[in-house]
Amino acid sequence: MIRLGVPSKGRLMEQSFDWFAQRGVRLSRMGSDREYAGRVEGAENVSLVLLSAGEIPRELQAGRIHLGVTGTDLIREKLAGWRSHVEELAPMGFGHADLILAVPACWRDCETLDDFATIARDFRAEHGFRLRIATKYHRLVRAWLSDHEVADYQLVDSQGATEGTVANLTAEAIADITSSGETLRANHLKVLDGTPILRSQATLLRSLAAGDADELGVFTARLGL
Ligand SMILES: Nc1ncnc2c1ncn2[C@@H]1O[C@H](COP(=O)(O)OP(=O)(O)OP(=O)(O)O)[C@@H](O)[C@H]1O
Ligand SMILES: O=P(O)(O)OC[C@H]1O[C@H](OP(=O)(O)OP(=O)(O)O)[C@H](O)[C@@H]1O
Questions:
Q1: ipTM (interface predicted TM)
Q2: How far is Cα 125 from Cα 61, in angstroms, rounded to an integer?
Q3: Domain match, 7 and 92 both
Q4: What is the Å distance from ligand 1's center to 207 Cα?
Q5: Is 179 in the pocket of ligand 1 (CB under 6 A)?
Q6: Closest by alpha carbon to 205, among 25, 10, 44, 5?
Q7: Residue 127's domain is classified under what CATH number?
Q8: Best of 178, 191, 198, 199 to mutate for ligand 2, by most ligand atoms within 8 A of CB?
């Protein structure tokens, strides 16, 4: 039996269901809205496992699911050396979001990452502690800042409502996912010019640890992959 992991709620779940339906495989939740059990029609030997999007990388890595749908941001953040754990089978064309670094909109002299690096250096000299960046994307942000030789900062963990941390005085800057930009604007933040830390979208992935069941080839062919 192939175990297919799909996000258990929200837009990501609905758009995943639509994506499979367009390929002739009907996924649905069984029972009440609160029951996390799923049904698969239009493909044999496939069971639907409804999971938090954030847990799908770990389940793929462990081989407890054969296939999984989640954002590329979560795969790259949660799995060190992700290429040795999963294969990306198909970008799915939804869940587009950019991981960005944002600063207070009132920082007039901070438009680029170079400006940010200068401000971070001065901040440390002036305040005696490193400028704080709130994020849940620790691995990706550290790697990106290191690549760009920015060192005078500290990460503050924020697992939600990250854009609020600047007004709450627990951070000077944030690194988070944005799509429409509305949450940033509403919290008086602006994105630094230049390419984002990462461009993410929902992706269908195969576990490299779950083994290569015969049914898997049949199912991926059914999906046109
Ligand atoms: N505003 C957005 N627009 C598009 N995609 C988004 C947006 N916010 C988050 N995403 C994407 O959705 C995926 C799931 O995000 P997140 O980790 O916030 O899950 P969640 O909805 O909080 O679910 P859970 O708490 O169950 O893990 C991520 O890959 C993320 O990139
Ligand atoms: O650019 P926008 O269109 O405003 O979207 C960005 C927001 O969407 C995500 O939050 P989500 O609503 O998924 O909730 P979360 O903060 O609990 O992750 C993300 O963390 C941002 O806060």
A1: 0.93
A2: 43
A3: yes
A4: 21
A5: yes
A6: 5
A7: 3.40.190.10
A8: 178
